[in-house]
Every structure is written in structure tokens, then in C-alpha cells.
Amino acid sequence: MPVMDSARASRAAAARAGKNRAKGKGHPTTGVIEYSGDEWEFMRAIEDFKRVTGRKFPTWAEVFRVLLSLGYKKSAEEPALKVHRVA
């Protein structure tokens, strides 16, 4: 059985304990993410694309084509991008 050095063992233990993991934008007490209807529609369309094409990771061009298929059209006035900050 291979022997781990102490630094590697410490990193492995920290990973198992969940330390230094990125936190999602979920609800602070439940961890449940509340998506809008548009977000659900987009996620379903991406999942459908992946299922139909057999591609696990679509390219950005393919993601853009999925957006176009959902009716995305760039308007003359661009709204400010809403960014959700993770605490």
C-alpha cells in the first residue's frame, strides 16, 4: 500500500471535509437555487441539445444557436448585465 506524505494527506482530508469549496448562489439555509422561468427554459434547451447531439459539452457557438432557437434577438438598446455575486 502506498504511503502519502503529510501535505498530500492534509489536502485530501480538507477536500473530503469540503473546505475551500466554491459556494453556489443557492438559498443561504437550504442551498436550493431559485431559477426564473427563462432560466429553466434555457437549461432544458441545453439539456435537449446535449441529449440529441450526444455532446456533453457544447461549444459557445452551439450555446448561441440554442439561444437563437429560443427566440433570442439582440435589441437596439442593451440592458445592463445583471450579475449575481456569490458571497
Structure description:
- With 87 residues, the protein is mostly helical.
- It has a domain at 24-71.
- Helices cover 45% and strands 0% of the residues.
- The model has no long low-confidence stretch (mean pLDDT 82).
Summarize the entry for a quick read.
This protein is mainly α and 87 residues long.
The averaged pLDDT comes out at 82
- Could you give the count of β-strands? 0
Number of helices: 3
User: Largest sheet, if any?
Assistant: none
User: Unreliable runs, pLDDT <50, ≥5 residues?
Assistant: none
The ordered string of helix (H) and strand (E) elements is HHH
Q: Termini, distance in Å?
A: 41 Å
Please bin the fraction of helical residues.
Answer: 40-55%
Structural class, judged by helices and strands?
Answer: mainly alpha
Q: How much of the polypeptide forms β-strand, as a percent range?
A: under 5%
Characteristics:
87 residues, mainly alpha, 3 helices, 45% helix
Give a topology summary.
Blueprint lengths: L5 H12 L19 H17 L6 H10 L18
